[in-house]
Design goal:
By secondary structure, the chain is α/β, with parallel strands linked by helices. The protein contains 7 helices and 15 strands. The protein has a 6-stranded mixed beta sheet with strand order 10-9-11-12-13-14, with helices on both faces. Helix 6 runs parallel beside helix 7. Required for formate dehydrogenase (FDH) activity. Acts as a sulfur carrier protein that transfers sulfur from IscS to the molybdenum cofactor prior to its insertion into FDH.
């Protein structure tokens, strides 16, 4: 559909030299999600895996509980100034034409950096889910966790080209990589991964680990909880609210997963040294 990268020329300045060269950028374009023709959300994303992104977004916002709630998702009119379809508008048809839940009767605008921008309060995203991780007693060995960042990094082909996208991956607790996705928005990358699982009808995601190449923010922890993922691991720091949510829901939150070290902030009973 859309391009994930684009070329431009830059003036590169280095100590003692300046030159002009081609550079590759990650593409960022808006995706509008509609339900029954009514606009629900606009998110700034890297094109690709849009259907997965939509499934993941609708699940983690509590609008659907699984793939069977959706009849069809299709691209609709979204044209550029030359009349070409931009593939930037998706319309969702619910299987039974059910009303959107009260918690979702607002318009979302999500930038590439923040999945919860525009929401009235944190209470609005503390949504109930049928897939909460509290009952998942799975465990993972430290040696398995330390191998995950490299697997994710090896799957980041767009990052190799641009250096400008986040990565997210879903692993089994034995270290098996199930899926990896990239996006300029870390929350979009996670929605794509979860959306893949929704389409594969794998919910709840018991005995899995969500690995992200960014920090572990509240919205990423919330998305993990909504999908029933018991373990969230990040190469950078978690936020205080992510840890609070981990303690509330028994989500294992791991930060600074680099090399042979990591910090375990909540749900430490799942990590075996």
């Amino acid at each position: 559909m859309g391009r994930v990268s684009s070329r431009t020329r830059v003036r590169r300045i280095r100590p003692g030299s300046t030159d002009s060269r081609a550079d590759t950028l990650a593409v960022e374009e808006p995706l509008e999600i509609r339900i029954a023709g009514e606009s629900l959300a606009v998110t700034m994303r890297t094109p690709g895996s849009d259907i997965e992104l939509t499934h993941g977004f609708l699940l983690t916002e509590g609008i659907i509980s699984g793939a069977d709630d959706i009849s069809v998702i299709r691209y609709c009119d979204g044209v550029d100034d030359q009349g070409r379809n931009t593939y930037n508008v998706l319309d969702v048809a619910m299987r039974d034409q059910q009303l959107i839940p009260e918690t979702a009767t607002r318009n979302f605008y999500a930038t590439s950096s923040c999945g919860v921008c525009g929401k009235a309060s944190l209470d609005a995203v503390r949504l109930k889910s049928d897939h909460r991780p509290a009952d998942d007693r799975c465990t993972v060995e430290v040696g398995t966790l330390t191998g995950m960042p490299e697997q994710l990094r090896n799957a980041q082909k767009t990052f190799d080209l641009t250096g400008g996208v986040h990565g997210a991956a879903l692993f089994r607790t034995d270290g098996t990589l199930l899926v990896a996705r990239e996006d300029v928005g870390r929350h979009n990358a996670v929605d794509k991964v979860i959306g893949w699982a929704v389409q594969e009808r794998l919910l709840p995601l018991r005995e899995t680990i969500l690995m992200v190449s960014s920090r572990a923010s509240f919205e990423l922890a919330q998305k993990a909880v909504m999908a029933g993922i018991p373990i969230l691991a990040a190469v950078s720091a978690p936020s205080s609210l992510a840890v609070d949510l981990g303690n509330e829901t028994d989500l294992t939150v791991i930060g600074f997963l680099r090399g042979e070290s990591m910090n375990v902030y909540s749900g430490g009973h799942r990590v075996l040294e």
